[in-house]
Amino acid sequence: MSTDTGGRPMEILLIEDNLADARLAIEALKIGRVKHRLTLVRNGIEAMEFLNQQGRFARAPRPDLILLDLELPLKDGRDVLIEVKADLDMSSIPVVILTASQDHEDRLRSQLLNVDGYMTKPVDIAKFLTLVRDLKRFWMSDVALPLVG
């Protein structure tokens, strides 16, 4: 008898303009063996187009997790976070901030907006994996389907 829950891979939206930081997050997810599909967008405008399924992202999946850098070109990550948390359809998506910002006000503002994690760069891989595993357990318990036998 299989113990597979039959769940689909976690949809992760990584919003990061620095390719080295994006690569680190992607590698950490591989090491953590998180069954996922990842989409990388590199600025805040692309992020909102993806989340609102606009333009070339018209068929984009709804993410189960957003990994968000605050320092983004074209549209700041802080503005993306405010828009996500203000939208009734998106506000329930877990958001983890991955940022180089050491600004205490950024951390407080993020907490007020109920982010699910806040990590400063360079990201500690062990802490990142622990956070992702915790979110994975939460996500899997929420979407696991009973086996039909």
The whole-angstrom Rg is 15 Å
The SSE order reads: EHEHEHEHEH
- Give the strand content: 15-25%
Structural class: alpha/beta
Let me know the number of strands: 5
Q: What key attributes describe this structure?
A:
5 helices, single chain, five-stranded parallel beta sheet, alpha/beta, 149 residues, disordered C terminus, disordered N terminus, 5 strands
In short:
By secondary structure, this protein is an alpha/beta fold. 40% of the residues lie in helices and 17% in strands. The N terminus and C terminus are likely disordered.
Describe this structure in words.
- The protein is an alpha/beta fold and 149 residues long.
- The chain is built from 5 helices and 5 strands.
- It has a 5-stranded parallel sheet with strand order 2-1-3-4-5, sandwiched between helices.
- Strand 4, helix 4 and strand 5 (117-120) form a beta-alpha-beta unit.
- Helix 1 packs across helix 5 (125-143) and helix 2 packs parallel to helix 3 (77-86).
- The longest helix is centred in the C-terminal third of the chain and has 19 residues, at 125-143.
- Residues 1-6 and 141-149 have low confidence and may be disordered.
